[in-house]
Fold each of these.
Amino acid sequence: MYSGIAVSSGVAIGKAYLLDRTKVCVIKRSIPEKGVEKEIRRLRDAIEMSKAQMKDTKQRASSIADKYAIILDTYTLLLEDDMLVNETIETIRQERCNAEWALTVTLEKFTNLFNKINDEYLKGKKDDLDLVVHGVIKNLIGHHQENLADIDEPVVVITHELSPSDTILMSKTFILGMATEVGGKTSHVGIFASALGIPAVVGLVNLTEFVNSGDTVIIDGIQGEVIVNPDKEQLNHYQKKQKNYQRYEKTLLKDIGLEAETLDGEKVQLMANIETIHEAKSIRKYGGEGIGLYRTEFLYLAANSLPTENDLYANFKKVVQTMEPYPVVIRTLDIGADKQLSKINNAPEDNPALGLRGIRLSLAQPDLLMDQLKGILRASLYGKTKILYPMVSSVE
């Protein structure tokens, strides 16, 4: 039995499909001085190819669930990160080396920085960066990989890591469950797997060394465990657990329309947190009674330019109308720490989490805050609307 992190609930039992997602071996090559600029062009071309692939993947993601397509925007933003690109170009020029090697050097620098951060959420972003960089490296060397869409029989996918395009190509018909060696609570694998209702466990170090294609595998997405080649007793136990969980899910769906009320008659208002407008309909569908937190920073992260007052108003209006008569709590922009905007020039800080972020950034950029407030106030004509200011540290 192998223990990892449960990211999508449920129990899956099936034949293992070992997906080759090993990282390519990068060797340093010397480049003549006259070939340096050509090597930089190779890097930029590979990055543009990765962005085009991400755009295509996003379009396919939208057909599954619009709200999950927003995740792919964060990968595109990583590809556009000036520090990532400029550091790599600088290494190519200084060391006169191939772009693949320069990228691995840059990745190592960033990885060391992430390892020093004492925050599990931010550490999880290290895997995102690793995935994006290796995608560019594969484009540089023309590495082709097998496709999840080619699977035509029910299997449990076992692999080192899955890219966004991998997860989007997953079919609930044939992919019974999945387990990866890397990933965390906030990884895209869990988010997409949950959207499709596929049990998943991540963070299972060296799992692929102990699994062969064709092995019987159990994925316990409830406890975060994986069992390879279970005995008869284990198989019976998890088959019962699988049926019990399926019954449990059906029971929950039957209770959607019931009042949320304690045994002594106290009514509880169940509200949800959202990141995109597309999630509001799901809240109504599953019996939610309002939005307790609408995180607006994703409106900025996914946009090519800063949203205008009218852009924000149109978005907030739809959310408020969808949730009427229930309340919507809209949080003003909380950019800073792990989320940065290239459209806002922020000076580097020793401790961004305690620096110019949240309400402090909004007060330093009054025009930015005013557009948000006007958009919220105009939308409030269509339903119950509240404002939440992030990172308030004092009354003043």
Amino acid sequence: MINSRTRGLTTLLTFSLLVIMPAWFILLTLLAESFGLEILLHQINFPLYLLGIAGACLLFVNYESPTPPRGSGSFLFVAAVRKANTTILILALVLFGIVFATKDKAISRIFLGLYISSSWLLLLALHRYMPMIFSNLLFRGKNTINTILAGNPWRAEKLQDWILDHPPLGMKVLGLVSYGEVEDENLKLPILGHISEFEQLLAQYEIHQVILLESRNSKAWVNYIVDTCYREGCRILILNQWEDFFDQKLTAVEEGQHTFFTLQDEPLENPVNRVLKRLLDWLVALPVVLLALPFFILIIKYYQIRQAPGPLFYRQKRSGFKGRTFSIFKFRSMYCQPEKSETAQDETQQAREGDTRVFPFGQFMRKTSLDEFPQFINVLQGNMSVVGPRPHMTEHDEQFKRLVEIYRTRHFVKPGITGLAQTFGFRGEITSVDLIEERIRLDLQYINNWSIWLDIGLIFKTIKQILFPPRTAY
């Protein structure tokens, strides 16, 4: 029931975008001519532009389905802003692509800018309020689904936040039917009765759906609930008990006649997504290596000769995709120390603020991440990606995997020059287990929620951090 209603709302929201956005384009062209903007109304190729706008909306649906958001008002607004940003980016690329490809002079750039900026406000309103409007129209009155929970109170307590998020789909949870005595003070749901009264309660409250919270390791218990629901014509939702054993969200995988659960939903296992990510890597890395890197080589080599003579690059073994080791390239930012020198320090020691091993210009390089630019060579070689979890030294890998059990899951994708954790300020020296745990949490969030737009967004955030380095950069 929930899936079907969600799919139905998604279809309606998609149809709304396909109707409203082209209609707004037509209306704005009429208004623009009335107010004397540079526009030749009778020369506009309306079919081409309307087709482009509809295509942009369908591309948005392909990358991020406009499903009804749930949660608090602030969460709904943030979700709507994110969706509006994604839609408007695709729309702008499509429209400006049409203008430049056709060299159209009937529409001015000023008009396109006006349409795109006004469309952002319109899309924000659509993504924020349209799901609620459709839900209130379609899932009220006779279409409300009266629901009860059956099982243990502490399991019902775990679902309380989820229950509050689902009124938009017309699901009204009336309370809990339990067994034994209920002493859970944190349970805010009303107790409707004992499981021995289950059949009478279904009729008394006109229940349409039962959420079975547990199996109690008893086939007789499950059969009793299921058979009673069948007799009374109630739908059944079965809570996944495996979630009790994991801190992560489980993802259902259907293969043949069987349903499996996995702890990771990995978009980059889709070969199409892998091709898109690799194309983005080449589009970013190739210009950097051909145009920017030679310039940086001249500047950095000049300061190395003056302040810290030695090799230009520094190579180090790092752990990458599937735990395979590779040599990472960096501009050398530290003084050269003889291997047998008594003052030589272990290269596995992480750089820290005020590190005496770093020469003066090297400090600037590390703060602005200039020392990382040779890693675009690693990207072209295929050892790294522009965006992904940062690779660590193999010695640190062994150390960190003993501290954090899920550490090695970050090797499911290629390591990156920048990543989600780095844009949140987690860079530099790792001084505690909490820091590495937070980095891994963000790495897993990236792996499980990858999209091409996420990569593009992280690249722009990284550029901002290069221009305005965070305090953790040293």
